Structures are given as structure tokens and as C-alpha cells.
Amino acid sequence: MRETVCALHRELVRNNLVAWTAGNVSGRVPGEDLFVIKPSGVSYDDLTPEAMVVCDLEGNLVEGAFSPSSDTAAHAYVYRHMPEVNGVVHTHSTYASAWAARGEPIPCVLTAMADEFGGEIPVGPFALIGNDDIGKGIVAVLESHRSPAVLMRNHGVFTIGDSPKAAVKAAVMCEDVARTVHLSRQLGEPLPIPQGDIDRLYDRYQNVYGQRSQR
Ligand SMILES: [Zn+2]
Known about the structure:
The chain is of the alpha+beta class. The protein has seven helices and eight strands; from the N terminus they run αββββαβααβαββαα.
């Protein structure tokens, strides 16, 4: 899991989702009440599997030479309250955070959004770092939406997945659709997709699309 989480941080850089050190990936350790997360303030270029930090589900450091990411409490809260989640990602990716700054959900106006998110990408509450408020906001919103991504108001993106890779994919797709819907808005009002069609697209993508062995 250290190797997996370390390698996935390179995807945040490759997909232009992060500036400086502001973004992190975590992954639940299979069969343990533990997760692996990025160390705080370490450059992406300097990340190695050994530098990754292991925490318990309260966010306490269990193993590692560095202190854990400052977002560790939010990741830990998600793992405690959403047992089906095995990966969490946080970014301040540009276009998605622009929607978050307005507190505006991204409307479901693209078939790719219906596929991945099953509807709009919702907005979570404004919350300060330092306690469980961010985690509570993430869980409250994502428990009642199909979307694996939430835009935390005035802040940025949190995504979840059944693996760390799935959570990274959701973060990449979230930024992609945030950009496209933003551009669409510049020349007019994007056309909504009827709910029945969103449901059909979501069901097909989640259950039929792709290689069965990779689902
Ligand atoms: Zn943040």
C-alpha cells in the first residue's frame, strides 16, 4: 500500500491537479484498521514508499519518520464512517475549486458526468481544518449522493473510491468535467440531461462498461 499510494501521487502531478505540496492520496491497508497517507509538506519529487506514513483510523501516527499530512483527520473520519471506502484523495485542482469557491454544484450536463458521478457533483459545507468538521461534511454529503466527489465550499475537492486508484480517477474526472462545464457556461447555458437518461448512463457505466476483470 505504501508503494501504491506513493505512485498515485505522481498521477496528481501528471494530471495537473496540484500546486506545490497541496494535495494528497491515502489508501486503507487491507484487513487492518490502518491507512497509508502522504507525509506533510514533502515535495512530490521526494516521495518514496518508505516516506509514506501509516496512521490508525483516529489519524494517529503508527509508523513513519515524518508527520502525516495536515488533512489526515479528514481522511481518517471518512475511513471510520464509510467502511466501503478504501481510497481518499484531496486536491485544490483549479476548475473544480473555482466551483467550490462559488459554492456551486457542477450540474450533470455531460454523459461522462452521468457515467462517473451519476448526477451533479455536490457541494459540502465550509469547514476549517483542525478538527472533524471537514470529515463530517464530506461524509454527510457523499452518503446521500452517487458522486464519489464533493466540492468543499471555499476549499477544494475530496474524492473517495473502493481503491486509492479509483479515488484518483474520480479526482481527475472531477477536474475534467469542472473545466468543460465552465467553458460551456461561457457561451450560454449548458443543456440538462433528463434524470432517466442519467440513471441509464450511470447504470451501464458502473455495471457493464470496461473489462470485467478490472472492475
Ligand atoms: Zn485542502
